[in-house]
Amino acid sequence: MKKYSVIIGAIIGISAMSIHAKTYVLTDTQNNIEVGSWKTEGQNYTIEQQVLHGGKQEGSKVITITSPNGLTIALSPTRGMGLLHAEGNGVHLGWKSPVTELVNPAYINLDSRNGLGWLDGFNEMVVRCGYEWTGHPTTIDGQIYSLHGKAQNTPASYVVVEIDEKPPFAIHVKGLIKESTFKKTDLRTMTQLTYIPGETSFKLHDVLTNHADYGHDYQIIYHSNFSQPILEEGAKFLAPVSEVSPFNDYAKKGLKDWTTYLGSTKDFDEMVFNLKPLSDQNGNTIAALVNKDNNKGVAIEFNTKQLPVLTLWKNTDTLKQGYVTGIEPGTSYAYPVNIERAQKRVKQIEAGQSVSFDLTYSLLSDRSQVQKVENTIKQIQGSTTVKQVETPIAKE
Amino acid sequence: MKKYSVIIGAIIGISAMSIHAKTYVLTDTQNNIEVGSWKTEGQNYTIEQQVLHGGKQEGSKVITITSPNGLTIALSPTRGMGLLHAEGNGVHLGWKSPVTELVNPAYINLDSRNGLGWLDGFNEMVVRCGYEWTGHPTTIDGQIYSLHGKAQNTPASYVVVEIDEKPPFAIHVKGLIKESTFKKTDLRTMTQLTYIPGETSFKLHDVLTNHADYGHDYQIIYHSNFSQPILEEGAKFLAPVSEVSPFNDYAKKGLKDWTTYLGSTKDFDEMVFNLKPLSDQNGNTIAALVNKDNNKGVAIEFNTKQLPVLTLWKNTDTLKQGYVTGIEPGTSYAYPVNIERAQKRVKQIEAGQSVSFDLTYSLLSDRSQVQKVENTIKQIQGSTTVKQVETPIAKE
Amino acid sequence: MKKYSVIIGAIIGISAMSIHAKTYVLTDTQNNIEVGSWKTEGQNYTIEQQVLHGGKQEGSKVITITSPNGLTIALSPTRGMGLLHAEGNGVHLGWKSPVTELVNPAYINLDSRNGLGWLDGFNEMVVRCGYEWTGHPTTIDGQIYSLHGKAQNTPASYVVVEIDEKPPFAIHVKGLIKESTFKKTDLRTMTQLTYIPGETSFKLHDVLTNHADYGHDYQIIYHSNFSQPILEEGAKFLAPVSEVSPFNDYAKKGLKDWTTYLGSTKDFDEMVFNLKPLSDQNGNTIAALVNKDNNKGVAIEFNTKQLPVLTLWKNTDTLKQGYVTGIEPGTSYAYPVNIERAQKRVKQIEAGQSVSFDLTYSLLSDRSQVQKVENTIKQIQGSTTVKQVETPIAKE
Q1: Quick one: residue C110, left, alpha or beta (phi over 0 = left, psi -120 to 50 = alpha)?
Q2: What is the mean pLDDT of residues B341-369?
Q3: How much is the average pLDDT of B105-119?
Q4: What is the pLDDT of residue A19?
Q5: B322 → closest Cβ in A105, A155, A182
Q6: Which residues contact A260 (CB under 8 A, 6 or more apart)?
Q7: Cβ distance of A211 and B99 shorter than 8 Å
Q8: Residue C188: its pLDDT value, please?
Q9: Which of A323, B253, C132, C305 has CA 20 to 30 A from A94's CA?
Q10: Does the distance separating the beta carbons of C109 and B30 come in below 8 Å?
Q11: pLDDT tens-digit readout, A91-129
Q12: Residue-averaged pLDDT of chain C
């Protein structure tokens, strides 16, 4: 396999931001650049790309950002720029799936198991579920709309690491995910992870562009998954919401305790709740998972103008099955696309138009950080009571 | 990845032709030869194999023949020896698809979208649609017959470049496409592209062999696709035909103008016409696309004994959607295999038998070349009038 | 592609057995080890791993054990540790499929042809058909249960070669096949081939572990396939059985001659027989294929407590179609999983439990070896008569 030498300091005219940045192109299909194993180091960070081998992970790539006093963050260009895990101050963000390999999408058939093939690779901390469609699988006119769409199983066409040369010396990892099918769709998403070394939070700024000459549907769910040490018996979910409803009949029985978690529980399977998030006057809001002792947590800031709904996935089954909860800001709930469309949650993106999605993930590792997030949530919640709707808003 | 040194001048006993040829085996699965990046140069040509990387084109190979005073021709062993594009005298043959990568078939699921997975990779100039089946997808007894069959998404098992050592020093690129499935089919096609450096035409000579001990159906459409600078408002399609009919109801409204093209037209989508080509006494015929000014074009010579029907695909939608027309000599029209079978266009190849398909593609870059093709077409057309059938011959 | 240096003599704490063994880890996804091309030699053996290239076998790996006075055995980590062929004393074990490449599962869609995609890669001597399901394909609630399950098209996650350092200096090739799908299954099979250089038999010892916290169905068929020079007109199948029944109506007409074989026969297709094997008091039994002259054969020893049923697949069609017979000890016959379940042959494996499968394959190359196997079979058969059931026990 031909290895291209790393292009150091090349100025790529992608955005104004890169003018004062060191730029490393790791993948560029248009210019046939594929760097493979790669590493760069700064004063307080290391960024490394590794190519995995063996089994179904043959050829899968991982980019790891390591900041000794901040976070270690891993993401995978091969799996749609999905975030694998993050870690800092002794707190791990992510979870343990029975799927232990970073499966190369070449080995995945999304349509298998009647549209559940996505489950053969699912083990990430943050999965972009979209953008052509998302949600539970369904078959319409013979076409399987497979679980959570194709983006996560699409290898990035263009990957660049940019390191700002002026304070705060932010690191940007951009990756382009193309959902391009002749006659059908040409949705291209330039994902971006931004991390400032030493900090304990990171940002996503994804720009979805409809490259086609016709408008197109889109859906997106940021499927953000966390487990131990934050998730435990007595852990809490916090978010300002106006309404909660069970996803299905099984979740009804968990409605009264929807904000608290069980420990790993045999036969629990999963309960899903549909939430209507509240936000400040700018649409900004925040959701968090906090441990029992209120000294560990993770918070996700997002904007309800971009991501108007929020799904809470409580999968507190046994450790081996995947003890995990998902906090999932999105344009849609997890119902199949036909239900989401009927209920008017499927968005439209006009020809040539772009829409952005911004999320900030913060690792909380002491009581004061947790308290601060709780305060913000209380402030946004204000005096609004949370309406508990007993009946699922849709039936699959 | 193990790289084998290039075998220069080795005599492979494939055909008498190679006795006086320099022979370069680029791929040979039986002997585990895979050359990867490779280049050879002659007095007036360069032939190069490049391995692409990144995104969904990881591992895809391209062979490019460059003849400074003639053509540059690119084809892909990974994608069924499909021809990507050709260029000469400032005229480009091929088109621009929203699919920009040369997708490795490992990333394609032909059955997806109810049999339309082929659209995830379609961006070539010449696609062999076949040979086990072709046409629009259909499901028979639960089996999806996916759009345009499997050949184009089958990596070649054997690839050899032969360069004749006596005039006219033709270059032959052969590639073996195996459609071999235990119990089902063993159709093996030795494709061959022949190009004489300095010329502005090239030939395909494909030999389909039924390697099984039982007869088998086969279908083939040479899906040949062209765009700017030949395709434009006022461009013309020329071919001697006895009959034209619209593929479906939508194409009815284009019937009266079936030989001329629109510029890129929003909401045009595609119109398809079924043609019955006329030929000379040997079965030889020719079809052409010519620009408005009659000084640029492309002509395809083929034989109606091999390829009795001709499909005209007018996809004059916007540039970004893929502004393109397909001239498609075949054994079948593009209806699903069950319709083609009912209408007796599905061919049979007996056990051990071979059938050949010969096509010559010529780039036309001045008025006299265009005129010459027009004259040939007029001569074959003679006094036969073109019957316009208003009603589609089949309904999908 | 990064190549890791071979770890020689490393002690891996997998089993007590490896304490006095040289251990070579060839693949280890958890530690990102993938050795690629590799070779080791001893006094009377060579073990080599080769990476294949070109066509649909790009990246497929083969491990070959060669013992000059014993057997040459080839198996493929990429294709579920399947055994490709074995050879010794001039006798070849295995067969010739029209599928000539060792197809990388990245190029296989098991669901294609309504669940027959497995046929695009089938050419091995021993295929593990399982473990999540096996048998002929069926669709239940929209999910395709594809032919013979997924194990054979799953690249091994962990591959190790161990060579015992004390007599009889056995060679063990272990490979881990994970069928891990979030929410669905976590069946992990540590396959093991054991061969003592100089001998003409080899053993399989496979340990299937249900790594999940819930019980799960499993099925397994050891699809063991042989052809010339053993299979020929007048060749015989030998096994102690209490009952034989035709798999379907077509096999009825072959019932009276079910123990003998035809030469390669046009239009024969395949006849399948369901057998109830007899065994000794420990459950041990043996089945064999013997040539006409009783001087060549192959015997499979297995245990009916592990593998209670036996399928005989007679595919004595023409050589090109694949002239082959399958001797298939299993937990199930080859009916679709819903039939096998209804007839109580689908097994259950509890959470955390392991079940083992042990088989010994012996190459027979003279009359006395054949005679010995025949005697054992006669002894187990004893005075039990073989009941011939005329009607298939199930209808697909």
Answers
A1: alpha
A2: 98
A3: 98
A4: 59
A5: A182
A6: A234, A235, A236, A237
A7: no
A8: 98
A9: C132
A10: no
A11: 999 999 999 999 999 999 999 999 999 999 999 999 999
A12: 95
Distance of CA A292 to the CA centre of its chain: 24
Q: Does the pLDDT value for residue C3 go beyond 60?
A: no
CB contacts < 8 A, A to B, total 105
| Partner residue facing C213 (CB), from A37, A51, A318 | A318
Distance in angstroms (rounded) separating the CA atoms of residues A332 and A308: 8
| Confidence band of C4 (pLDDT split at 50, 70, 90) | very low
Mean pLDDT of chain B: 95
Q: Within an 8 Å CB–CB cutoff, is residue B183 touching chain C?
A: yes
How far apart CA B289 and CA B259 sit, in angstroms, is 9
pLDDT band of residue B21 (cuts 50, 70, 90) is confident
Q: Could you give the CA distance from residue C339 to residue C357 in angstroms, rounded to a whole number?
A: 23
Helices and strands in chain A, H and E counts: 5, 26
- What pTM, to 2 d.p., does this model score? 0.95
**Residue carrying structure tokens 């002997």:** B31
Cβ separation of B180 and C100 shorter than 8 Å?
Answer: yes
| Domains by residue range for chain B, with CATH | 16-388 (2.70.98.10)
- C-alpha C131/C-alpha A223 separation (Å) is 31
Determine, for residues C57 and B29 on separate chains, whether the beta-carbon distance falls below 8 Å: yes
> Under an 8 A CB cutoff, do B29 and C99 touch?
no
C19 confidence band (pLDDT: 50, 70, 90): low
Q: Is C153 on the interface with B (CB under 8 A)?
A: no
* Chain B residue at shortest CA distance from C37: B2
What is the signed CA dihedral for C299, C302, C304, C309, rounded to 10 degrees? -50
Residue A200 token pair? 């304990």
Whether residue B213 has pLDDT greater than 70: yes
Residues of A in contact with C53 (CB under 8 A): none
Which two three-digit tokens encode residue C241?
């059985």
Question: What is the pLDDT confidence band of residue C20, given thresholds at 50, 70 and 90?
Answer: confident
Question: C7 CB near a chain A CB, below 8 Å?
Answer: no
Amino acid, single-letter form, for residue A252: K
Chain A residues closer than 8 Å to B36 by CB: 1-2
A287 Cβ contact partners less than 8 Å away, ≥ 6 residues apart: A237, A238, A239, A277, A299, A300, A302, A310, A327, A329, A377
B98–A2: do the CB atoms touch at under 8 Å?
A: no
* A295, containing H or E segment: none
Chains with 3+ CB–CB pairs under 8 A to B are A, C
**What amino acid is encoded at B109 in this protein?**
N
Contact B320 A1 (CB under 8 A): no
Cβ-based contacts under 8 A for chains A and C = 104
ipTM: 0.94
Residue A189, helix vs strand vs coil: strand
Three-state secondary-structure class, residue C337: helix
Nearest partner of C183 among A313, B329, B216, B95, judged by Cα? A313
- Do B182 and C53 lie within an 8 Å CB cutoff? no
Contacts of A29 in chain B (CB under 8 A): 52-55, 57, 100-101
H or E stretch including C250?
A: helix C249-252
pLDDT recorded at residue B19: 58
The amino acid sitting at B393 is I
Tokens representing residue C337 in the block = 């999983």
Asked if pLDDT for residue B252 goes beyond 50, the answer is yes
**Nearest of A200, A195, A270, A278 to residue A240 by alpha carbon:** A278
Alpha-carbon distance of B245 to B251, in angstroms, equals: 9
Chain centre distance of CA C244: 22
Whole-number Cα distances in Å, A50 to A65, A208, B353: 11, 27, 50
Q: Which residues in chain A touch residue B52, judged by CB atoms under 8 angstroms apart?
A: 29, 32
Across the interface, which of C55, C119, C139 has its CB nearest the CB of B181? C119
For chain A, which chains pass the contact test of at least 3 CB pairs under 8 Å? B, C
